[in-house]
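[scheduler] slot 2 assigned
[scheduler] job type: sequence-to-structure, two independent chains
[scheduler] chain ordering preserved from manifest
[runner] begin chain α
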Amino acid sequence: MPNRKEAAPFRWGVATMSMPLIEVLKDYYAPVKAISDRTVTIYGFTLKAFGEYLGEQDGSGYREPTTADLDQYVVARFLAWRLRKREPATAAKDRSQLRALWAFAWAEALPGVARGPNVRPVVVPERVPVAWLEEEMRALIISAGQEPGSICGISAAAWWRSLLLTCFDTAERISATRSLRFDDIHGSLVVFKAEDRKGRRRDIARTISSDTAIAIDAISSPTRSLVWPCDVGAPALYARFDRILIRANLPTDRWSKFHRIRKTTASYYEAAGGSAQKLLDHSSPAVTRRYLDPRIVLQEAGDAPARLPKVS
């Protein structure tokens, strides 16, 4: 890998060389930063969108983005294009990931990068969190227990019911939950390994109810290690989840998936006097605030009328 100081004179000349950004991501950035395969995939979605934009501009349909495309005007126009098609949060993610690759390529003096990253932030409106209410969560669990068919030879109803109950009891992210092995479950205690969690910094232990433990035991097998193996890809799995939601008369939009269960548990836990921040393993109360549904737990200033004099 070239040294930045040695390569510095190249930056201000004519860029005659460049590298595909997917190569930068997989061959340089991912190994040095030690990011997970899942994170590489998510970065790949951003690069694919960037390539679609570039292809639309030159009429090719799709053009592989390279380090030469890490230009403030090109990236700014891409983000504006992205905002016209997707939610601000998606554009903000794209901006963050492109900037990370850009900063890395600049610091390592990779060919084609004329200058360091300079691109405006994307403003993401902070929405009021929406969880499932108690009766909605109950309907979801009932519907999961009615799912026909099988997954890896396991009753789909038992597979889904035990998974959703575990998500509700522990408030852990779906990726870590799907990675659970029977060796990680010790009666009512579940240990989520650092390697399977976001950030991969530490293990956490959470308890599950007796109902959830029984549901997991019902799908246990001495011949496999994963609690919830799956023989279909993510699109097919989420299509089955949509079917469960529809049967429960619940919405199926992108905000009504597994993460909404995490908000549900956090909101009810906080309302009962617990610390949702500790439960969710968040770094700050500001992050946790985005998980608490005000219908379940009133946050600061949310109960103003009860504290004000009556004037009507």
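[runner] end chain α
[runner] begin chain β
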Amino acid sequence: MHTVFLLFFGLYAVGVSAQDYVVSAKGDTLRGNVKLLTYDIQDRVQLTGPGKKQVFTALEVKTVMMDGELYKTQRYENSYRYMKLLKGGYLSLYAFRPKGQAAYDGRMLIKTTGQSAEVANLTFKKSTAAFVEDCPEVAADVRAGVYSRNELDKLIDQYNACMAGPRPPGGATESPTMVAWQMLQKKVAGLPNFDKQNDVLDLLADIGQKIKNTQPVAGYQLDLLSQYLQGQAIDELENFLDLVKK
């Protein structure tokens, strides 16, 4: 009997851990059966749990885990879509459903700064090279035909390695982590009626100094930052944490 109970409990635990989930804009994790719904302006996600069905917009729920694949809300033209993450990093690759199609055949390159570019077919060399121009060697390789539309993984690896490396002296481009820190600091400074604003800005100043000095940022500082900004729905915070924790 004891063995049967343990076997049942183990199977139940595996089922729960493998369950789909969504993460709300406030940072809450909700588990259940997930289904993506397409609408004209905003995609939606349906979450079904025991005796309860909820539908959220792509702005209310920005992260979806479904069938072992991660989807994130991204702006596309004048709409908000759930795009499937294919490769993450400072420069990430997403798959999306082009208008009028059910398959995720479209490809989008997105930087943590928020800049994005759809991967074109006919103008691939010109448009992609322009998008990665902040790393001249990668842009030159794209123009030279080193990478094709089917070799985006290699292109992204080279670009991210370039951006993570030492920046050239004299008017150098900031590191991706520093750029993300600057964007977060600017967003916090502009938050209206935020009673923890001064505390967060002081904390960010200390974190920023460590980044400039290439010193590790303490885990408790990142946890405190997340606690202070909980409920603020700041995309810049998520982008910054993704980079600084690497």
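[runner] end chain β
[qc] chain β: The radius of gyration is 21 Å.
[scheduler] slot 2 released
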